[in-house]
Amino acid sequence: MESGIVKRIVESSMAVEREVISIRRQIHRRPELSYAERETSALVASKLRSLGMEVRTGVGGTGVVGVLRGGEGRVVGLRADMDALPINEEADVQFRSEVPGVMHACGHDAHTAILLGVAEVLASNRDLLRGSVKFLFQPAEEDGGRGGALPMIEDGALEDPHVDHVFGLHVMADCPAGVICYRPGPIMAAPDSFRVRVRGRGGHGSKPDDTVDPIFVTGQLINAIYGLRARMVPQTRPLVLSICSVHSGTKDNIIPDEAVIQGTIRTLDEELRSSVKIKLGNLVRGVCEALGAQCEVFFEPNAYPVTVNDPSVTAKAIAVLREAGFPLVEIEPIMGGEDVSRFLQRAPGMYYFLGIRNEQKGCVYPNHSSRFKIDEDVLKVGVSSLALLAVAFSSKE
Ligand SMILES: [Zn+2]
Ligand SMILES: [Zn+2]
C-alpha cells in the first residue's frame, strides 16, 4: 500500500485516540452482560449515526450494524463484541465498573471503542475506500453457547451488502503492548462442553455391595476420559480435555443415587472434534454399562466452531501490516473459543490479537481476571490496523 495512505490512516488514528480512550472508559464504567448490551448498543448506534452511516439496530438481539458505502469494490466487515462478564471489578483504575458484580474483564469495551474509532477514521478518509465497510457490533460473545454472532448472521448482518471479508481483533494480556499476534489457519479452538449424569442406586455407606455407587463409577470415568486424550487420538493433533466439575453426595455414610460430571473439549479441526465427541460418548456408556450404572451424555449443541484464519487473506493482511511498520509476532493457537468463528466461516478473513501487557503500568493480569487492566496506549494501534485492513481489502486487486 502507498506510504501516503498508511500515513493518513495512522495520523487519523492518532487524532481519534483521546476520544477512543474516553469512549472505552465510558463503556467500562457501565458494563452489561451478554444479551443485555442496551446502553452500549445505543451508544454505538448514536455514534455511527453521527458519522452519517446507515445504521441497523436490534440485529439478532442488541447487535448493531453500520454501513459506510464506498465504491464498487469489496465489502469488508469489521467485528467487535460488546458484552461484559459477571465479575466484581478489583482493577486499579479510576474508571472502575459502577455496576456491582459486572466487569469488562475481557476487553470488549476496548474492542467496541476501537471499532468506533475505526468508523470515524474511515468516515473521514472515505476517498481511500474502493468498496464498502460494514461495522458489526455483536452481543453475547461470552455466552459460550449460542452466542451473539449467529443470531446476527441469521438476521442478515452479512447481507445487503454481502460481506466478502471479515476482520476483528481481541486485546490480549499474554502479548506485549502494541504487538499484533497473528496466526494463519486455526487460531482458536472449538469449545465443546459436555455433561455426564451417572445414575446408580444409592444406599448405606457400610453396604456398598447393595448399591451401584455412582461415585465409584465417576472415578473410573475420570480415568477413562483422560485416557482418551492419552491413548485414543493421534498425539500430533491438538486436543484439550478437562473435567472441571464433579458433583455428588450429601453425607459421609450415604452412597448417593447420582453423580454429575462436567467438562470441556477443545479442538482445532472439525474432524477431530466430531470423532472425540463420538468416542467420549461411547467410552462413558461402556464404562457405565460395565459397572451396572445408567448414564446420559449431553453435549452443548450450539458450541462455537474452530476460529480459522483464511491462509491467503492472512498472508495478504500480514504483508500490509508489516509494510506499514506494525510489530508482528506469529503465535501458537489458543485453546479458548470465539464466536467470531461464525463470521469467518461465512466470509474469509483474519482474527488477531493486540497485545496489552505492560509491566510498568501494572497491565499484567489475564483476560477474565478481576484485576484485568489494559494499556490504553495500544488502542490507536487497534484502530489503525483495522482501518488499514479495511482500506486494503476494499479493493478488488
Ligand atoms: Zn472473554
Ligand atoms: Zn473476549
TrEMBL record:
Gene3D superfamilies, per the entry: 3.30.70.360, Zn peptidases
Gene Ontology MF terms: carboxypeptidase activity; metal ion binding; metallopeptidase activity
Residues in Peptidase M20 dimerisation domain copies: 193-283
InterPro entries according to UniProt: Amidohydrolase, Bact_exopeptidase_dim_dom, Peptidase_M20, Peptidase_M20_dimer, Thermostable_CP
Annotated residues for binding of Mn(2+): 106, 108, 142, 170, 368
Entry keyword set: Carboxypeptidase, Hydrolase, Manganese, Metal-binding, Metalloprotease, Protease
Required co-factors: Mn(2+)
GO biological process, one term: proteolysis
Note on how the cofactor is bound: The Mn(2+) ion enhances activity.
Family statement drawn from the similarity comment of this UniProt entry: Belongs to the peptidase M20 family.
Protein task: Can release basic, acidic, aromatic, and, to a lesser extent, aliphatic amino acids.
Subunit structure: Homotetramer.
NCBIfam families: amidohydrolases, carboxypep_CpsA
Protein name per Swiss-Prot or TrEMBL: Peptidase M20
